[in-house]
Amino acid sequence: MLYPSIDSLLTKIDSKYSLVTVASRRARKMQVDGNPKLLKYVSHKYVGKALEEIHADELIMIKKNLENFKE
């Protein structure tokens, strides 16, 4: 069983695409600055750590307003 589960993560972020985007950006940032948001992680890899931060509500996604978007 994977921790955290995809079902529990999708209650925090509305789509799988957004979840992957947020987790990958945070993983890259952790590789550069190494600033942890949690005291202890289950995972040893950066993406797993980012997913744990999302699960613990330490990492959230803020949606941008696209009303004024023009093509």
TrEMBL record:
UniProt KW Transcription keyword: yes
Entry annotated with the keyword rRNA-binding: no
GO CC terms of this entry: DNA-directed RNA polymerase complex
Pfam families: RNA_pol_Rpb6
Reactions the enzyme catalyzes: RNA(n) + a ribonucleoside 5'-triphosphate = RNA(n+1) + diphosphate
A single MF term (Gene Ontology): DNA binding
Biological process, per Gene Ontology: DNA-templated transcription
Keyword vocabulary terms for this entry: DNA-directed RNA polymerase, Nucleotidyltransferase, Transcription, Transferase
EC code: 2.7.7.6
Coiled coil: none
Matching HAMAP family: RNApol_bact_RpoZ
Family of this protein: Belongs to the RNA polymerase subunit omega family.
Quaternary organization: The RNAP catalytic core consists of 2 alpha, 1 beta, 1 beta' and 1 omega subunit. When a sigma factor is associated with the core the holoenzyme is formed, which can initiate transcription.
Function: Promotes RNA polymerase assembly. Latches the N- and C-terminal regions of the beta' subunit thereby facilitating its interaction with the beta and alpha subunits.
Protein name (record): DNA-directed RNA polymerase subunit omega
